[in-house]
UniProtKB/TrEMBL annotation:
<keyword id="KW-0812">Transmembrane</keyword>
<protein>
    <recommendedName>
        <fullName>Cell division protein FtsL</fullName>
    </recommendedName>
</protein>
<feature type="transmembrane region" description="Helical">
    <location>
        <begin position="23"/>
        <end position="45"/>
    </location>
</feature>
<keyword id="KW-1133">Transmembrane helix</keyword>
<keyword id="KW-0472">Membrane</keyword>
<feature type="coiled-coil region">
    <location>
        <begin position="50"/>
        <end position="77"/>
    </location>
</feature>
<keyword id="KW-0175">Coiled coil</keyword>
Length: 113
C-alpha cells in the first residue's frame, strides 16, 4: 500500500510508545480472559468439592449407623447371656448342679460404711 500524499515518512515509522501501548493492551486482554476463565472455574470447582464432601458424609453416616446397630446387637446379646435363664441353661449343659443353702448354715457378715 502506498503512502498518502499528506503524511510524511516520519509519521509512518512505528513509534516505541505505540508498541508499548499495544503490548499493554494485549496483556490487559489476556489478563481479562484469565480472570473470566478463573471466575468460571471457581464455582465449578466449589461445586465438585461440595459434592465430594456430601458423598463422603453420606458414606460416614451409613458406616456410623451400621456401627450403632452392631453395638445394639452386642448389647442385647450381653444382656441375654447375663439373664438367669441362660445361666441355668449353660450350667445344665456343663453338668453343674445347684444346691439350696439351708438357712441354719448361713453366716451373716456385717458390712461397715
Amino acid at each position: 500500500m502506498g503512502s498518502d500524499w499528506y503524511t510524511s515518512d516520519l509519521q509512518q515509522v512505528p513509534n516505541p510508545k505505540n508498541q508499548k501501548l499495544v503490548l499493554l493492551r494485549h496483556a490487559g486482554v489476556l489478563a481479562m480472559l484469565l480472570a473470566v476463565m478463573a471466575s468460571l472455574f471457581v464455582p465449578v470447582w466449589q461445586s465438585a468439592v461440595n459434592r465430594s464432601l456430601a458423598v463422603e458424609l453420606e458414606a460416614e453416616s451409613a458406616q456410623l449407623q451400621a456401627m450403632e446397630e452392631q453395638h445394639r446387637t452386642l448389647r442385647s446379646q450381653i444382656a441375654s447371656l447375663s439373664m438367669p435363664e441362660s445361666l441355668v441353661d449353660e450350667a445344665w449343659k456343663k453338668n453343674v448342679s445347684f444346691k439350696q443353702i439351708e438357712a441354719d448354715h448361713l453366716v451373716m457378715v456385717a458390712r461397715g460404711n
